[in-house]
Amino acid sequence: MKSKILKKLRESDGYVSGQELCDTFGVSRTAVWKAVNRLKEEGYEIDSVPKKGYRIVSSPTRYSADEIKSRLVTEWAGQEIYFCQETGSTNTEINQLAEKGMPHGTLAVAECQTGGKGRRGRGWVSPSGVNIYMSILLRPDLAPDQASMLTLVMALAASKAIDECCEVKTQIKWPNDILLHRKKIVGILTEMTAEPDYINHVVIGIGINTNQEEMPEEIKKNATSIRIETGKVTDRTALLERVMYHFENEYDRFEKSRNMGVLCADYNERLVNLNQVVRVLEPGNEYEGTAEGIDETGKLLVVREDGTKESVYAGEVSVRGIYGYV
Ligand code: BTN
Predict the structure, then answer these.
(1) Digit-coded pLDDT (tens) for 125-172
(2) Is 243 in the pocket of ligand 1 (CB under 6 A)?
(3) Ligand 1 centroid vs 32 CA: distance in angstroms?
(4) Which domain holds residue 30?
(5) What is the pLDDT of residues 195-215, one digit of tens each?
(6) How far apart are CA 272 and CA 56, in angstroms?
(7) Residues 266 and 291 in one domain
(8) Which backbone phi and psi does 97 adopt, to 5 degrees?
(9) In terms of domains, do 45 and 138 share one?
(10) pLDDT higher than 80, residue 107
(11) Which of 18, 169, 212, 242: disulfide with 225, CB 3.0–4.6 Å?
């Protein structure tokens, strides 16, 4: 109720009468009054004028389920939100919520993670109060071998969201790292629970180094934050809202064809290694070639010096620039 009232007040230019709130949400005057009081206790400045109603004057810079929910403009992405101050990993949270039958689009957000998970068994540095750590539950109608494309869908959405919200130009390092000034600011970890021919559910976890002021020594060379690169503090709720908006948009486009076809051009335009020589590191097989972008299945097309064309599947492969990370 609180987030619905907040949204309604925010959408209106002037006062919204108590009666209108009662009618819109089918609740009593007392329920509206109680919800408004709770919002005031949480730091929202709300003007209440007899016979006119309520008007929102200012919001605290808060990062909470109510604040996020009241700003979302999506149909399904993030419409159910679980917000925790501290958790092991939001991916684990979502896996548990999936087992309880929560719907497609359910989102877990945490202020900090004590066991943030990265790709290939690595960890993800997750200090409190500065960054975004969240995971979304998907119940896609896809074959298990198509699920890796969902990571690319999220990478494209998050890249668009950051550019829009923070006025920067991010790039994507295939398959799913997002870079700013050629250093990593976003990591995405996709986990799937499936039968041989059927997906039960997919969890896409995304960590955005947002307002962190310094990176730990051991990852400093290749990792950074939006704050470090721009000198500006980003409103995490605003950025999270944009990620959900773009993700829902891109996912709905993707779902129509169940391939990257319609997303390829946007994705390739952001690809940091496009038309550059890269080194492909497959277990037991290393080679160099020119990256020509992704195909409609999300594989990276690499042309070797002798003209042989390779389609690289994400899995265990890693692709680097010939001089290092990019
Ligand atoms: C990577 O190694 O690049 C992937 C990092 C993914 C980190 C995010 S933070 C939110 C979600 N919860 C986790 O434990 N991991 C992902």
Answers:
(1) 999 989 999 999 999 999 999 999 999 999 999 999 999 999 999 999
(2) no
(3) 39
(4) 2-58
(5) 999 999 999 999 999 999 999
(6) 43
(7) no
(8) -65, -35
(9) no
(10) yes
(11) 212
Confidence at 278, pLDDT banded by 50, 70, 90: very high
Decide whether any atom of ligand 1 lies within 6 Å of the 174 Cβ: no
For residues 316 and 44, what is the distance between their CA atoms, to the nearest angstrom? 48
The number of the ligand 1 atom at minimal distance from the alpha carbon of 122 is 2
pLDDT at residue 61 in the model: 67
Using the 3D structure, point to which of 16, 42, 58 is the last residue of a domain. Answer: 58
- Among residues 143, 148, 150, the alpha carbon closest in space to that of 198 is found at 143
315 and 180 together in one domain: no
pTM, whole model, 2 decimals? 0.86
- Sign of the torsion angle spanned by Cα atoms 313, 317, 322, 325: positive
Nearest atom in ligand 1 to the alpha carbon of residue 89 is 14
What is the Å distance from ligand 1's center to 110 Cα? 12
For ligand 1, whether the C-beta of 117 sits within 6 Å is: yes
For residue 92 and ligand 1, the question of a CB distance below 6 A is answered with no
Q: Does residue 242 have a pLDDT over 70?
A: yes
Query: Probe ligand 1: pick from 117, 148, 215, 219, max atoms within 8 Å of CB?
Result: 117
In a domain, 20, yes or no: yes
Cβ–ligand 1 distance for 189 under 6 Å, the answer yes
* Whether residue 176 has its Cβ less than 6 Å from ligand 1: no
Q: How far is the CA of 238 from the centre of ligand 1 (A)?
A: 20
Long-range contacts of 216-221 (CB under 8 A, 24+ apart): 216/125, 219/125, 221/325
pLDDT of residue 184: 97
Average pLDDT over residues 234-250: 97
Distance 189 CA to ligand 1 centre (A): 5
Query: What is the pLDDT, as a whole number, of residue 99?
Result: 97
